[in-house]
Design brief:
It is globular and about 70 Å long. It has six helices and no strands. It is mainly alpha-helical. The chain has helices at residues 6-31, 39-58, 65-84, 86-89, 94-127, 135-179. Helix content is 83%, strand content 0%. Helix 5 runs antiparallel to helix 6 (135-179).
Length: 180
C-alpha cells in the first residue's frame, strides 16, 4: 500500500476534527443546557452528522464531486441550526470548506466557504439572530464568520496545492536523478 499523500493526510486531519466536534456536540446534547435546541432537533442533528461523518470516513481517500456536494448540503443544514444554537453546532459546517480545499484546491475551498458563509448570512437574516447586536456591529460579526470560513477553505486549498506541487517536484527530481 502506498503511503498517503500530503492532501490525503490533510483530509484525514479534517476527519479527525469532525469526529472531535461530534464528541463535543454529543457531550453538549446530553448536558441538557437550556441554550441547546429542542431534544428532537438535537438528536436529529447528531444522527445526521454522525452518519455523514461515517460515510466520509469510509470514502477516504477518494472524494467525488457528488460526495463533496453532499458535504456542503450537510454543512449548510448544520450551519442553519448553529445560527440559533451556536454552542451546539460549533464549527462543524466549516469542515466542508476545509474538505473542499483539500480536494479541489484554493478555488474549491473558497467556493465552499462562500456557500457555507452565505448560508450563515441567510440564516441570520431569516431567524433574526443576534437581536442584541445592531447596526454595523451585526454586519461585521456576520461578515467575520463568513470571511473566516472562506479563508479556512482557501487556506487548506493552498496547503493542499503546495503539497501536491512538492510531491510532483520530488518525483521529477528523482526521475531526473535516475536518468543521470
Amino acid at each position: 500500500m502506498a503511503p498517503a499523500s500530503g492532501p490525503q493526510m490533510l483530509a484525514r486531519g479534517v476527519l479527525v476534527i469532525r469526529w472531535a466536534l461530534l464528541v463535543w456536540m454529543t457531550v453538549l446534547a446530553v448536558s441538557g443546557a437550556p441554550q441547546l435546541p429542542p431534544v428532537a432537533l438535537r438528536v436529529t442533528t447528531l444522527l445526521v452528522a454522525v452518519a455523514w461523518t461515517v460515510v466520509l470516513t469510509a470514502r477516504l481517500p477518494g472524494w467525488s464531486l457528488p460526495l463533496l456536494l453532499g458535504d456542503l448540503l450537510v454543512a449548510v443544514a448544520v450551519a442553519v441550526i448553529g445560527i440559533r444554537y451556536p454552542a451546539f453546532a460549533t464549527v462543524y459546517p466549516a469542515m466542508a470548506a476545509l474538505q473542499w480545499g483539500t480536494a479541489r484546491g484554493v478555488a474549491g475551498g473558497v467556493v465552499a466557504g462562500a456557500v457555507v458563509g452565505t448560508a450563515l448570512i441567510l440564516a441570520r437574516l431569516w431567524t433574526g439572530f443576534m437581536p442584541e447586536v445592531t447596526g454595523v456591529a451585526r454586519v461585521v460579526r456576520t461578515a467575520a464568520d463568513t470571511v473566516n470560513v472562506i479563508l479556512a477553505g482557501g487556506g487548506f486549498g493552498f496547503v493542499a496545492t503546495l503539497l501536491r506541487r512538492s510531491a510532483d517536484d520530488l518525483r521529477a527530481a528523482q526521475a531526473a536523478e535516475v536518468r543521470a
